[in-house]
Task: inverse folding
């Protein structure tokens, strides 16, 4: 066999051409004139193939260009180097260098394209913006209005939990969080998410939960579509609340489904309590409503602080090994100050 072009003897297996003549002037890899890269204005993620992914913009341009790369069928791609350089706010010059193998011969090729960043809104964000929701979690306090500290804490917990879940499944989100009379409502993107949010709150606060569902329509596949509402009733007490029993103030130091633990503010002994006992306690100071007292002197088991309102120097007991800063949290009960550790 000899090459029909140059006459060289050898392996003229490329339509009668030798490899050298076959490669001459031939485009081995090709990119379109431009590649559009979709980014969501809501979450900032990039659409690559069918997936929305979080990555740096230049990397997303690399990926988008690589996905559009065409290689002649005679070659296989051995390795590739990509570099995206920003040209202006929404466009990148992306260059690709490819090492190819053609019939055992290593051949290098390069090309480039213009990646244009296009703004759009992903399905999740458009659902979020449209206040799409399936499930509602209603969080209420029994026996009292939910205080600000509890509301903030519950909201932070729910949002952190859902954010963690959404890393594995981006269809999970909080559509809306609303303060309503008596508590907080969360509108969530799925019933199973509602169920798990209700469960973590019930575990965390020893809350009672109730669920009810209503039929709202049919799914595309004909299955019934339900909205499930979860009512989470927080007990009338929470960790950090101070209650008084037999004239002694106690801090609630732990809450579980069946009860909890209380800490005496006179001798700092802790003891377990049943749920029914907790329910019978009268909360005198909700957590987050303590006063601050400036520390004057400290010694083992005792401290002198400035009374927060009279500025008199007062002796207060502290637990063993207690390390106070410049100020401590205190409550005043029957003209006596108690440190809340
Ligand atoms: Zn030839
Ligand atoms: Zn989005």
Result:
């Amino acid at each position: 066999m000899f090459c029909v072009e140059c006459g060289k003897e050898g392996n003229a297996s490329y339509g009668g051409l030798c490899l050298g003549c076959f490669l001459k002037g031939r485009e081995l890899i090709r990119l379109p004139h431009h590649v559009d890269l979709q980014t969501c204005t809501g979450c900032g993620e990039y659409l690559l193939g069918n997936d929305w992914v979080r990555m740096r913009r230049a990397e997303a341009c690399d990926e988008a260009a690589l996905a559009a790369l065409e290689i002649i069928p005679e070659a296989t791609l051995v390795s590739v180097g990509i570099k995206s350089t920003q040209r202006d706010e929404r466009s990148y010059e992306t260059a690709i260098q490819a090492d190819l193998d053609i019939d055992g011969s290593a051949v290098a090729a390069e090309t480039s394209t213009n990646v244009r960043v296009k703004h759009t809104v992903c399905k999740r964000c458009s659902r979020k913006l449209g206040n799409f929701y399936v499930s509602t979690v209603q969080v209420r306090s029994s026996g009292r209005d939910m205080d600000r500290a509890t509301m903030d804490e519950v909201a932070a917990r729910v949002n952190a939990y859902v954010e963690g879940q959404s890393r594995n499944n981006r269809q999970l989100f909080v559509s809306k969080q609303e303060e309503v009379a008596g508590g907080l409502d969360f509108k969530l993107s799925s019933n199973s998410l509602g169920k798990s949010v209700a469960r973590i709150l019930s575990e965390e606060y020893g809350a009672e939960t109730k669920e009810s569902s209503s039929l709202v329509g049919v799914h595309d596949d004909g299955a019934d579509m339900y909205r499930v509402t979860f009512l989470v009733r927080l007990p009338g007490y929470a960790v950090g609340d101070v209650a008084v029993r037999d004239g002694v103030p106690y801090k609630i130091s732990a809450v579980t489904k069946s009860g909890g633990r209380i800490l005496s503010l006179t001798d700092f002994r802790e003891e377990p309590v049943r749920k029914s006992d907790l329910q019978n306690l009268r909360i005198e100071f909700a957590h987050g409503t303590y006063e601050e007292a400036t520390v004057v002197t400290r010694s083992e088991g005792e401290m002198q602080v400035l009374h927060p309102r009279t500025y008199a120097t007062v002796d207060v007991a502290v637990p063993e090994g207690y390390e106070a800063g410049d100020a401590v949290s205190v409550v005043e009960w029957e003209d006596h100050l108690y440190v809340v550790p």
In short: The helical segments are 19-23, 57-67, 123-129, 148-166, 191-205, 275-280. Residues 131-234 form one domain.
